[in-house]
From TrEMBL:
E.C. code: 2.7.11.5, 3.1.3.-
Record-annotated active site: 379
InterPro entries, per the entry: AceK_kinase, AceK_regulatory, Isocitrate_DH_AceK
Domain of life, source organism: Bacteria
PANTHER family from the UniProt entry: ISOCITRATE DEHYDROGENASE KINASE_PHOSPHATASE, PTHR39559
Catalytic activity entry: L-seryl-[isocitrate dehydrogenase] + ATP = O-phospho-L-seryl-[isocitrate dehydrogenase] + ADP + H(+)
Family, as annotated: Belongs to the AceK family.
Domain Isocitrate dehydrogenase kinase/phosphatase (AceK) kinase, first and last residues per copy: 318-572
Cell compartment(s), UniProt: Cytoplasm
Domain Isocitrate dehydrogenase kinase/phosphatase (AceK) regulatory as annotated: residue spans: 15-317
Protein name (record): Isocitrate dehydrogenase kinase/phosphatase
NCBIfam families, per the entry: PRK02946.1 (NF002804)
Function, in words: Bifunctional enzyme which can phosphorylate or dephosphorylate isocitrate dehydrogenase (IDH) on a specific serine residue. This is a regulatory mechanism which enables bacteria to bypass the Krebs cycle via the glyoxylate shunt in response to the source of carbon. When bacteria are grown on glucose, IDH is fully active and unphosphorylated, but when grown on acetate or ethanol, the activity of IDH declines drastically concomitant with its phosphorylation.
């Protein structure tokens, strides 16, 4: 950017207004994380869920406020280019000692792009690349704490670690829990602990991470050149006392906690880049975009994702193609084989007997973003006006876009702009996965499919269309739901049993002999379109027969209406200490 010969005082005031808008946003963002600890201590689970939902709206609300201020106070949409360039320079100067500069730059971009046309979306006006380094930003308190078990022993150190989080509720039996942690670590290393090096230390992120009914402690053991990550979930027992539920030691299992199929964490971070850097040292396969998003900073996650994606396009040459699988009736889906995501846009005309419109589909996706996804629904990144290199699109895909989504694209000579787009992690469609699985894997994944439906029901979600093509299998083998155009809250559905036919002739006719209202669901019918394969039918009926009974769904509805929030464990229940060790081992540990 060329520095102007003189500075306009309006540019300085605009820069300050932008910083003020962002600071207000992050102050409120941190306040929710601090409140999460209080709600966890009070076991106010409904309050925790509401806090997560409300927090998602904070960013857009602050952006809107700032846009309105700039338009009202400075007539921002009428300012010339030079003032905006100067405002950006002033803005950079104001971030010199800022604790969240990368987030503030993203906020600047969000405000600017809502004021001016996308023709201005270049490095002179917005932050295409970060201008302020996030390395070595000091934090108070520091982003992580260090402990030295060689000085006072491992058990005492672990006890101090837990105490330093300052939870007001007492632990039921912390000595017992710590004994189980040490036993689990023994088993992980097969009774061969690595030799303690001079630099042996345990490093813990200073804030606990809150989600649903659990607080998570994230840390790592540093020993010589080796790093051993771990996570400790803290829960409430039936008497309202705290306990350690398990210890996660495998990086991939810890990574599952940060999956896009789960709700965002709440953690009190003065310097979020410090938390992301620490987590990446624990989980090197996780990108910055994923971590920022799962920390509730989804706009920063989107911004980082887009930068990574543009970088990938520069270093690849494969073409965007229509995604494999059965074509959807509502969404047009395409993919780039070299990139692990799919791109989804809403068609102009829906196929089949769909009773939804574009606004309804958008509302369904927003519902999923705000809802507790309990590890069973894929989160999406939502983008507007994304410019793609047109030459990278296959002829088949271009033809589909022109035929089925004309209103969502703008074609130039070299670019193709998609006006509205969802991006989500690529999965193997369940119907294709079943076709290519051996018997044992098919049995496992059918059971997983039923478990996914149960988890969704417990979280007040009815998938609507439960065909296998609307579910996917993740790289960890979990079954995830990802087609949201017919999704409904459980409490908005009317689950019914099919009434007896008035006569045998009517029953044999295949015609419906009973009235069906909007919102009616007949679970007995699920088997007709789901269980054609004999093996699938056998396994499904063995483990999930009750899903075909309206009574199961009605019971779930009533529990939701009664305010009950289920426990969801983002790790196998066999790993929980209460299931992992037999009673005599637990009694010995408690003693």
């Amino acid at each position: 950017m060329q520095i102007p010969e003189y500075y306009n005082p309006v540019a300085r005031e605009i820069a300050q207004a932008l910083v003020d808008g962002f600071n207000r946003h992050y102050r409120l963002f941190r306040a929710t994380s601090q409140q999460a600890k209080q709600l966890f201590e009070a076991a106010e689970w409904q309050g925790v869920q509401k806090l997560v939902r409300d927090r998602i709206q904070f960013y857009d609300e602050r952006v809107h406020e700032t846009v309105q201020r700039l338009k009202h106070q400075f007539h921002a949409d009428l300012l010339d280019d030079e003032i905006w360039q100067q405002a950006k320079l002033y803005f950079i100067g104001l971030l010199t000692n800022h604790k969240q500069p990368e987030l503030a730059e993203t906020f600047f971009n969000s405000v600017f792009t809502r004021i001016l046309h996308r023709d201005y979306f270049n490095n002179d006006f917005i932050f295409i690349r970060p201008a302020i380094s996030t390395e070595y930003i000091e934090s108070d308190p520091p982003s992580y704490r260090s402990y030295y078990p060689k000085q006072r022993g491992l058990r005492h150190t672990l006890r101090q670690i837990v105490a330093d989080f300052g939870w007001r509720r007492p632990f039921a039996n912390l000595s017992r829990d710590l004994a189980w942690v040490i036993r689990a670590v023994d088993e992980y290393f097969v009774q061969r602990w690595p030799q303690a090096e001079a630099n042996l230390q345990i490093q813990l992120l200073s804030s606990a991470f809150y989600r649903n009914k659990t607080a998570y402690i994230f840390g790592k053991v540093v020993n010589g050149g080796q790093i051993y990550p771990f996570a400790l979930p803290v829960l409430h027992d039936a008497d309202g006392r705290l306990y350690l539920d398990t210890v996660l030691l495998e990086p991939w299992r810890i990574g599952v906690l940060f999956s896009f199929s789960r709700a965002y964490f709440m953690a009190d971070m003065e310097v979020p880049s410090g938390y992301v850097q620490f987590l990446r040292s624990m989980l090197p396969t996780k990108t910055k975009a994923e971590l920022y998003t799962m920390l509730g900073l989804q706009k920063q996650g989107k911004n980082t994702f887009y930068r990574d994606f543009m970088q990938h396009l520069q270093h690849s040459n494969d073409q965007f193609t229509v995604a494999p699988g059965i074509r959807g009736l509502v969404m047009l889906v395409f993919t780039l084989p070299s990139y692990p995501y799919v791109f989804k846009l809403i068609k102009d005309v829906f196929g089949g007997p769909k009773e939804v419109d574009r606004a309804t589909v958008k509302a369904k996706y927003q519902l999923v973003k705000r809802h507790d996804r309990v590890g069973r629904m894929a989160d999406t990144l939502e983008f507007s006006n994304v410019a793609f290199p047109k030459a990278r699109f296959s002829d088949e895909l271009l033809d589909e876009l022109r035929r089925l989504a004309t209103s969502s694209i703008e074609e130039g000579d070299d670019t193709l702009v998609i006006k509205h787009l969802y991006i989500e992690r690529r999965m193997k469609p369940l119907n294709l996965y079943l076709m290519n699985s051996d018997t044992a894997e098919k049995e496992r994944v059918v059971r997983e499919y039923g478990d996914a439906i149960r988890d969704l029901a417990a979280a007040n979600i009815f998938p609507g269309d439960m065909l296998f093509k609307n579910f996917g299998v993740t790289r960890y083998g979990r079954v995830i739901f990802y087609d949201y155009d017919e999704i409904e809250y459980m409490t908005d559905c009317h689950f019914r049993r099919i009434p007896p036919a008035p006569n045998p002739e009517m029953e044999m006719s295949g015609e419906v002999w009973y009235p069906v209202a909007r919102g009616d669901v007949f679970p007995e019918e699920f088997g007709t379109f789901l269980l054609g394969d004999p093996l699938v039918r056998r396994v499904f009926l063995q483990y999930h027969r009750e899903l075909l009974d309206a009574g199961f769904w009605q019971h779930k509805q009533q529990r939701i209406r009664d305010g009950h929030i289920e426990d969801f464990y983002p790790y196998p229940v066999e790993m929980r200490f209460c299931n992992r060790y037999p009673p005599q081992v637990r009694a010995l540990a408690a003693g």
